Fold this protein.
Amino acid sequence: MSNNKVVITSDGSHTLFSHKYNQHFHNTEDGSLSEALNKHIIPAFTFHTNKNELNILDICYGIGYNTLATIFYVVTNNFNIKLNIYSPELDFDLIKSLKDFEYPQEFSSFKDVIFQLSQNQKFNSENLNIEIFIGDARQYLKNLPINFFDIIYQDAFSSDVNFELWTKEFFDDLYNTSKQNSILTTYAISTNIRLSLYEAGFFIYELRPTKRKITLAFKQKQNIIGKFIDMKLKKERNKSAHALYDN
């Protein structure tokens, strides 16, 4: 973790500050565990009920809070669900160091999962399969099957420093690899990122699970969770607004 500094967040859980990207991995005011649960896991599982199996894409793995909080949420609520979680991560040294990371007490029963992922980047059991891909997320997406994922946690560093993971072309790939009845969750709420999702084919919704809003994206309109945002109307009213593009 030489490029990262350990920081304690408001809910008592630890996160890291990346010197490479000059950003925290989590919003320190929300708290690492609280952010994972409220901005990603709870919205996703509110949308997906009564499912026997879920395929989840976690972009990017980072410290692993989204993946581990997903397991915690399923176990705590006694859901009988098989989880298949796939996650790209560029920083191999970070992944290898996570066996020694100080996770919250809520993850204490997942020590074997954490160790196996740190050592082998894989964990497999009867109802839980996790695979971490070390490398470029854009390249990883090109090799994923179409219409495969039920849930996508879009949780890369911000577009200021991680631009390539927020463009319309990147969201095209996410759209192709997600099922028709899928949900994408992200903390990003800027109009240009929402337009990038919209131009890739997603319907945009807004939710305020904490004091901060989040964005939810779907391949089809739904009335289960969130407030619908009419991006066509927003684009007509704000001529200067634009999506993000690779070039």
User: Anything to note?
Assistant: The first helix runs from residue 32 to 47. Helices lie at 32-47, 65-76, 92-97, 111-120, 137-142, 168-177, 191-199, 231-237. The chain has a mean pLDDT of 94.
